[in-house]
Design a protein that fits this description.
Strand order of the largest sheet: 1-2-6-3-5-4
CATH superfamily of the largest domain: Metalloenzyme, LuxS/M16 peptidase-like
Number of domains: 2
Distance between the termini: 57 Å
CATH architecture of the largest domain: 2-Layer Sandwich
Structural class: alpha+beta
Oligomer: single chain
């Protein structure tokens, strides 16, 4: 059973009651992320996410950890470009305990100067960890190439300089501006009723003020850019792609199917062409990232530097030939794959909670799995081909490569860059 309530101050509560389960997953989502930061705030959304676990008026950081561990529960958070989520998963009998801890974190965290300084070191280590992971780093460099000098293109963690400047005062100012009632969505799935969730959170968040919702995004996309970053790695890590659809565009279901055909599994074109047929890669896939006003599609491949030209040629030919390669059988196979994955994901309350949130922020309504599958099934081959021609255009590519530049023959590198 799905239910939705909007509290007087604008907090939205969405639930799916599943009485046959013994677990509950609940997330408190704020519609704020890294793209809403000023340059001097770069990484602050992510840093605040960390600081929420560092002690409240009632609980120390150790208390928070021990309370959840003692009950076999899971309490975590993550920061995205446009949302920040704090969530827990517990047995239904521990719901009220977990909810009270989450409320304490969101409403009564201390942000002590000592803990802020300590956590700076933790986040800097996280930043260095990602910089040491070439597959992670190349994706950040790719988004920066698509949206240069725009908050959407910046990585979520921040920079060494920006992180070192964070203070309790900056945190509280940012919270006052962005952590407001009309930007908060409470979503839960599991063995807890809608009335119980409303009762638990309505009074606790009743004094949370309304704020100003973020203005519609206006990301400044830049096409046709290419950069090679020299790094001492065994492989070249390549991301390439371009702009795509926003998360509100009804064609996103067709884009999901296109992404599946291109690089969504072992039967995908990328996997078959680059790995199975030519043995040029071990890992390759496609991806999409959809935001409020724009989006991106891309492909990733990791390969030996000596295969630079061959990989490029395969990718270019694949994208250029895509409209004539796509068949009705491919479309039907992709539909079966996407619908099957959706149904399997429903066995997780965490996935169900995330799906409730996506419906709310994308469409302002609860979208059932049946509605999603109907929309997927409604995509026609004509829709498919038209979107492929619109989105997958090699002439609009931007790309980033990361790896040992000196191991690529000069004429091969110039051929693809010049």
């Amino acid at each position: 059973m799905y239910q939705r309530t909007v509290l007087p101050n604008g907090v939205r509560i969405i639930t799916e009651y599943l009485p046959y389960l013994r677990s509950v997953t609940l997330g408190a989502w704020f519609e704020v992320g890294s793209r809403h930061e000023e340059l001097q705030e770069w990484g602050l959304s992510h840093f605040i996410e960390h600081m929420m676990f560092k002690g409240t008026e009632k609980y120390s950081a150790r208390d928070i950890s021990e309370i959840m561990d003692r009950r076999g529960g899971y309490l975590n958070a993550f920061t995205g470009k446009e949302q920040t989520c704090y969530y827990f998963k517990v047995l239904d009998e521990h719901y009220y305990t977990a909810a009270e801890v989450l409320q304490q974190m969101l409403l009564h965290s201390l942000f002590s100067p000592l803990e802020v300084d300590k956590e700076k070191n933790v986040v800097l280590e996280e930043l260095h960890m990602y910089e040491d992971s070439p597959e992670e780093l190349v994706h950040d460099l790719f988004t920066d190439t698509l949206w240069p000098d725009d908050p959407l293109g910046r990585n979520i963690i921040g920079s060494v300089n920006s992180i070192n400047e964070f203070s309790p005062e900056m945190i509280r100012k940012f919270l006052g501006k962005h952590y407001t009632a009309d930007r908060l969505i409470i979503a839960s799935a599991g063995n807890i009723t809608h009335e119980q969730v409303v009762e638990t959170f309505a009074s606790a968040f009743s004094f949370l003020p309304r704020g100003q919702k973020p203005l519609p995004g206006q990301a400044r996309h830049c096409s046709g850019q290419g950069h090679f970053h020299d790094k001492d790695t065994e492989q070249v890590h390549l991301c390439l792609g371009g702009s795509a659809l926003s998360r509100h565009d009804p064609r996103r279901y067709a884009l999901c199917l296109l992404d599946t055909v291109m690089g969504g599994g072992v039967s995908s074109l990328l996997f078959q062409e680059l790995r199975e047929e030519r043995a040029l890669v071990y890992n390759t896939y496609s991806f999409t990232s959809l935001y409020d006003d724009t989006g991106a599609y891309g492909v990733y491949a990791g390969f030996n530097p000596k295969h630079w030209s061959r990989v490029w040629d395969v990718l270019y030919d694949l994208f250029k030939s895509l409209p004539r390669l796509i068949t009705l059988e491919m479309l039907e196979r992709a539909k079966g794959q996407v619908k099957g994955s959706l149904v399997l994901s429903l066995e997780s309350t965490s996935n169900r909670m995330n799906r409730l949130l996506r419906g709310e922020i994308d469409e302002g309504a609860i979208v059932t799995p049946e509605e999603i599958m109907n929309r997927i099934e409604a995509v026609t081959l004509t829709d498919f081909l038209e979107l492929a021609n619109t989105v997958y255009n090699p002439e609009e590519w931007s790309w980033v490569a990361l790896g040992p530049k000196h191991l690529i023959k000069g004429e091969q590198l110039c051929q693809k860059i010049c």
